[in-house]
């Protein structure tokens, strides 16, 4: 475990525990709700994130390794998702011409149609379930907080 040593653990005080538990509960419930809201489009949040990243990429294609990083999936989990998404016809894999071991994930026309169809409902879901509950100051503060957390996690990544 990172940072563990022979000293006493730094237990959470009541305020820290309250903040942590509320974050965990809200984030899990939010992701579950967003997942359920996408179900009518036969997409999961992981599928949506992959398609969203590909839709913004040049030629709607990305190297698998880069896509795993930006979609916040392990390479093995992305590989599994891509297999499922290939079966659905949303993406295809193409070998990298300059790297025999590398592959591109490429969005198909069917994948583009899926994200275009799901995006309005997903954005409305994000808005009503999250954004509408935040003031502009809340948005600024949350952005700063999670930028710090992300920076820390990138600087000290967990082992896969």
Explain the overall architecture.
The structure is a single chain. It contains six helices and three strands. It is mainly alpha-helical and 160 residues long. The protein has a domain at 29-123: Orthogonal Bundle (Arc Repressor Mutant, subunit A). The chain has a three-stranded antiparallel beta sheet with strand order 1-3-2. Helix 2 packs across helix 5 (109-129). It is globular and about 55 Å long. 16% of the residues are buried.
Which short descriptors sum up this protein?
globular, 3-stranded antiparallel beta sheet, 160 residues, 3 strands, Arc Repressor Mutant, subunit A
Any low-confidence stretches, pLDDT <50, length ≥5? none
Strand order of the largest sheet: 1-3-2
Class from helix and strand fractions:
mainly alpha
Oligomer: single chain
**Largest sheet, described in full?**
3 strands, antiparallel
CATH topology description of the domain at 29-123: Arc Repressor Mutant, subunit A
Shape: globular
Calculate the mean pLDDT score and round it. 91
Counted beta strands: 3
By DSSP (H or I, 4+ residues per run), the number of helices equals 6
Estimate what percentage of residues fall within beta strands: 5-15%
Query: Over all CA atoms, what is the radius of gyration?
Result: 19 Å
Order of helices and strands: HHEHHEEHH
Task: Give the class-level CATH name of the domain at 29-123.
Answer: Mainly Alpha
User: If classified by CATH, what would the architecture of the domain at 29-123 be?
Assistant: Orthogonal Bundle
First-residue to last-residue Cα separation: 13 Å
Please bin the fraction of helical residues.
55-70%
CATH homologous superfamily of the domain at 29-123, by name? Answer: Winged helix-like DNA-binding domain superfamily/Winged helix DNA-binding domain
